[in-house]
Amino acid sequence: MNLKERYKKPTPPFFRKLRNIGIALATAGGVIIAAPISLPAAVITVATYMTVAGTVATAVSQAVVSDKKKNQEEIIE
Could you read off the pLDDT of 51-68 as tens digits, one per residue? Predict the structure, then answer.
């Protein structure tokens, strides 16, 4: 299965929720990093980690596919 086919297949419900949480984390981290006020270095560091974690979670969750036909065949065998 190539990358284009993988992205066209449906995503399981758990990973859709995880993807949405990842998007929220990345957005919140980006907002904190781009804030026009001075923030402590610890807050900026945490926001950077939030952004990276959210981006990775979103990318990984989007790449997971549901292959119900294959799972059903494994159960029958």
Answer: 999 999 999 988 888 776
**What gap in Å lies between CA 14 and CA 39, rounded to an integer?**
35
- Full DSSP string of 35-76: -SS---HHHHHHHHHHHHHHHHHHHHHHH----HHHHHHHHH
CA distance 13 to 31: 27
The pTM of the full predicted model, rounded to 2 decimals, is 0.74
Give yes or no for residue 28 having a pLDDT over 90. yes
Residue 9 per-residue DSSP state: S
Distances (CA, A) of 11 to 14, 22, 56, 61, 74: 8, 15, 16, 8, 19
Structure tokens at 62: 């989007």
